[in-house]
Amino acid sequence: MSERTEHAGREERLYWLHQLERWARPVLTRLAEGRLRTEMPVESSGEGREAYTHLEAFGRLLDGIAPWLGAEGGSAEEQRLRTELLGLTHQALEQASDPASPDALNFGEGHQPIVDTAFLCQAFLRAPHVLWDPLTDEQKQRWLSTWKLTRTRKPFFNNWLLFSAVIETALARFGDRDWDPMRIDYALKQLEQWYAGDGVYGDGPAYHADYYNSFVIHPMLLDVLDHAGALQPDWEAHKGPALVRAQRYAEQLERMIAPDGSFPVVGRSISYRTGAFHLLAQLAWQRRLPEGLDAAQVRGALTAVMKRCFEPAGTYDAEGWLRIGLSGHQPELGEGYISTGSLYLCATVLLPLALPENDPFWQGEAEWTSKRIWSGGHGRIDHALGH
Predict the structure, then answer these.
(1) How confident is the model over 56-105, as pLDDT tens digits?
(2) How many other CB atoms are found less than 10 A from the CB of residue 158?
(3) What are the pLDDT digits (tens) for 301-324?
(4) Structural domains in the chain plus CATH codes
(5) pLDDT-based confidence at 7, cuts 50/70/90?
(6) Which of 245, 302, 315, 375 is the most exposed place for a label (fewest CB within 10 A)?
């Protein structure tokens, strides 16, 4: 491997770490100190998002950075950053769950907390040794009770079924005897009914052209099966097909990334920015990328997407908070349910940061599919599943 390609991996990892710190500090510092509600802006075209945006920011950010918080190694500077942010995370978790805290988060009122409790539970599942294990018995019981507050409202008949399933998976994983297998079973059976083919699930009975297969469906389906699949033989039987379908959709995602790092502006919630590549990042982190998809080319593609999404002027406000948009500040791209906290789903692109520096993901340099082909290079013909 040439010195230039080794240097590329190191430089891109530093860029990813810079993005992580830039997104994490505004949220974690303020929540750890009980200042999130008073100091976090709430940009939204919808009504009443102040009730939900703080849990959105914390749950979605932690979902993306939890594996890195639980990783080891890296440069001395990276290790210092990890130690600091993990300490802030532990303080933030206490503030978020303590009813007496000025920053006690809303888990029990309205439908939106079903969504972001699930993202927070997913974070716990992704790094239990640093998020769950250090808690006291009292803190653990408080969190289990907090997660169950979402049961008073039913999820909508679409990808939301997976939010309930992830919450129940976390309850089962962390020893709550009251976990409900039906909420997992219903989601798994219904998602199977909605499978449309070629790695794509319908978001409810109808197909929607958007990125929800990556925002939510594949990542949460895989995590439910990884953590709860062994609890029932028929759940375990879903694992193989679910992974094959996820790998196929990841191939499609990688091919959607243009040579300049842009990607199709299709469907709702486009202001989640790099959250559109949640699944691709997850499979890279778990070393489950499909055969023929090189880890280094995925790194290059995701780095290019990050630069397209976060370097334009106006992306952040003066205090460093994300603003609504895809390439800069574009408030018209935010649906009524989008607010400042929602935007931190972008952090799920950072999952591969948990891989060590010597992992193939951070080694070498490879052009992603569209960059290679549109520059006159050679690539594989794309085939649908089963062909």
Answers:
(1) 999 999 999 999 999 999 999 999 999 999 999 999 999 999 999 999 99
(2) 18
(3) 999 999 999 999 999 999 999 999
(4) 3-374 (1.50.10)
(5) confident
(6) 375
